[in-house]
């Protein structure tokens, strides 16, 4: 995995800026605990922190070839095939790493090399007098940038950019709107002046400016295969993807929830290697969530070694955990208990393994969420998960000043964001209205909803130095399934019909027939009471950074947990990150 950062400035000599570049690089230490390095030239500086996965002794970065330098994060899973092709073209390799393959591929094919990569990645290449930033097709790995008068700053996380004095820590109306909305718009990064490189894009930085280019996107089209052929093709793609993603020179495991997605991946992995699997169990959690029971069933069925990672509600409420989550994420979040739970799970998994396979994005690829099957949500004219009552700003109108909420116009913003997303898709001639809308809903899930999950997974895992791979995001699988008709994805009227058919010979019957359950969140009422008490103190303080934006008295109306979490974390974030409000 790793963390990258850098600075291009055509107006100054960056060889004199080592201290600043080191400070930027040091912010990525948890992403890359094994090694670090910087590379300086007159107008470009690259920083790297390494989490060693493949070729532990080689692959150190930044890596150079002549006047070309690379700082790289992620994994390219087809690096062996590319290496063979490049060797045949006369390239000679000094390491076994995929990093060197990426560098040599660029030298051989130029910008077109991105079309040949299969993986999750974000990297920067300085080629003598210009910079190329690249992000993977699905946006699994993050990459932020901050234009300056004479160049650009960039990094895997905002904190790397903010370590440079040129970057201002300002939150304006647009940034606050992004924070409080569930509409994640590609390219937005909350801090004023900062941007996130959209998935499937490159950014070229030259003396005369910045050039953003899209090199990949999902395209609507007809699906030529029948159900039997489709199931076989999906199985083939998944088998190949899992096999590729099992390559590592360090201990590897699967994150096994007992749901269909992670169970299928674990079964496929166990068929080719000795697999360890881990799941989370909240020891003092009431309710009937039986993830760990089904996870053990799967592990026993496929022959995987299995262990439950235990923590309690008290663990997740600890101020140290809350602070660690905020530091890892760089932004306030709406579902603090889920992020805290993942943070602790990943921390404890990292004590046992360095790489983990996750079922993330299976619901977006195969249509697993409940809102796929709710006509009122599907046809709501906005993001279906918003209509289904999971809007993060539900209750915020009771906490924030009415004139501010009117100015933000969150509902209108989300509808506009929905409409602009849908407009990105072309239509298929002769397709009926339901099939067309379900393709739109799938597109929203893959390009908007999944991005929030990728952010959560990336920040929480990399805070522990754990690489989490996501086989369901393989672009070949996503491209193929995207145009599978909804009638085929839902052929037996159950969620993820297609994936159930793919895994019917792999999994126990109890798991195949199990309905989807969400990631376990805290159900203890004491958690909400503690949040309310903390918020009551915040509103009463009057001298906190957020005080000017809040109502004068604690509202007694219904407040959702996301509203409580978001408000409390927003205030903590303003203080911890020294953010200036300009609204």
Automatic annotation (TrEMBL):
The GO molecular function terms of this record are: asparagine synthase (glutamine-hydrolyzing) activity; ATP binding
Identify the EC number(s): 6.3.5.4
Q: Where is the active site?
A: 2 (for gatase activity)
Q: In which domain of life is the source organism classified?
A: Bacteria
What pathway does the annotation place this protein in? Amino-acid biosynthesis; L-asparagine biosynthesis; L-asparagine from L-aspartate (L-Gln route): step 1/1
Q: Name one Pfam family in it.
A: GATase_7
Q: What GO terms in the biological process aspect are recorded for it?
A: asparagine biosynthetic process
The catalytic activity, as recorded, is:
L-aspartate + L-glutamine + ATP + H2O = L-asparagine + L-glutamate + AMP + diphosphate + H(+)
Look up keyword ATP-binding and say if it applies: yes
UniProt record similarity statement:
Belongs to the asparagine synthetase family.
Protein name in the entry: asparagine synthase (glutamine-hydrolyzing)
């Amino acid at each position: 995995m790793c963390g990258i950062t850098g600075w291009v400035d055509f107006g100054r000599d960056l060889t004199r800026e080592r201290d600043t570049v080191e400070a930027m690089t040091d912010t990525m230490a948890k992403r890359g605990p094994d090694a670090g390095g910087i590379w300086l030239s007159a107008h470009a500086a690259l920083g790297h922190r390494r989490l060693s996965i493949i070729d532990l002794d080689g692959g150190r970065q930044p890596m150079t070839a002549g006047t070309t330098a690379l700082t790289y994060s992620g994994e390219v899973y087809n690096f062996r095939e590319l290496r063979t092709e490049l060797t045949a073209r006369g390239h000679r390799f000094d390491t076994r790493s995929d990093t060197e393959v990426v560098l040599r591929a660029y030298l051989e094919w130029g910008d077109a090399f991105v079309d040949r990569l299969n993986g999750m990645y974000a990297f920067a290449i300085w080629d003598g007098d210009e910079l190329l930033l690249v992000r993977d097709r699905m946006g699994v790995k993050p990459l932020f940038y901050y234009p300056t008068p004479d160049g650009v700053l960039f990094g895997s996380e905002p904190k790397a950019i903010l370590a440079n004095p040129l970057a201002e820590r300002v939150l304006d109306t647009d940034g606050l709107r992004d924070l409080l909305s569930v509409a994640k718009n590609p390219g937005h990064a909350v801090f004023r002046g900062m941007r996130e490189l959209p998935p499937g894009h490159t950014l070229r930085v030259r003396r005369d400016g910045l050039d953003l280019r899209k090199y990949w996107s999902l395209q609507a089209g007809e699906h030529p295969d029948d159900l039997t052929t489709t199931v076989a093709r999906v199985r083939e793609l998944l088998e190949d993807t899992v096999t590729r993603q099992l390559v590592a020179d360090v201990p590897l495991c699967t994150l096994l929830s007992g749901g269909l997605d992670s169970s299928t991946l674990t079964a496929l992995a166990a068929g080719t290697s000795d697999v360890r699997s881990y799941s989370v169990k909240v020891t003092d959690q009431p309710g009937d969530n039986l993830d760990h029971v089904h996870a053990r069933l799967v592990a026993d069925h496929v022959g995987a070694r299995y262990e439950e990672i235990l923590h309690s509600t008290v663990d997740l409420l600890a101020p140290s955990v809350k602070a660690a989550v905020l530091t890892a994420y760089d932004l306030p979040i709406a579902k603090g208990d889920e992020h805290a739970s993942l943070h602790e799970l990943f921390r404890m998994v990292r004590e046992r393994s360095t790489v983990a396979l996750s079922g993330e994005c299976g619901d977006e690829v195969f249509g697993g969420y409940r809102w796929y099957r709710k006509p009122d949500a599907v046809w709501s004219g906005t993001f279906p998960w918003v209509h289904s009552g999971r809007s993060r700003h539900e209750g915020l109108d009771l906490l924030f000043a009415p004139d501010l909420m009117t100015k933000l116009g969150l509902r209108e913003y989300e509808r506009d964001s929905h409409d602009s997303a849908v407009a990105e898709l072309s239509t298929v001639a002769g397709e009926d209205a339901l099939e067309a809308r379900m393709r739109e809903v799938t597109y929203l899930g893959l390009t908007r909803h999944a991005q929030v999950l990728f952010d959560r997974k990336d920040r929480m895992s990399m805070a522990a130095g754990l690489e989490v791979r996501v086989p369901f995001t393989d672009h070949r699988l996503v491209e193929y399934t995207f145009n599978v008709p909804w009638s085929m994805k839902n052929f037996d009227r159950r969620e993820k019909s297609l994936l159930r058919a793919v895994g019917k010979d792999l999994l126990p019957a109890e798991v195949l027939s199990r309905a989807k359950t969400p990631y376990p969140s805290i159900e203890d009422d004491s958690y909400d009471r503690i949040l309310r008490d903390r918020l009551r103190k915040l509103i009463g303080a009057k001298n906190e950074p957020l005080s000017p934006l809040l109502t004068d008295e604690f509202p007694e109306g219904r407040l959702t947990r996301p509203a409580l979490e978001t408000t409390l974390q927003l205030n903590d974030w303003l203080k911890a990150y020294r953010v200036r409000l300009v609204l």
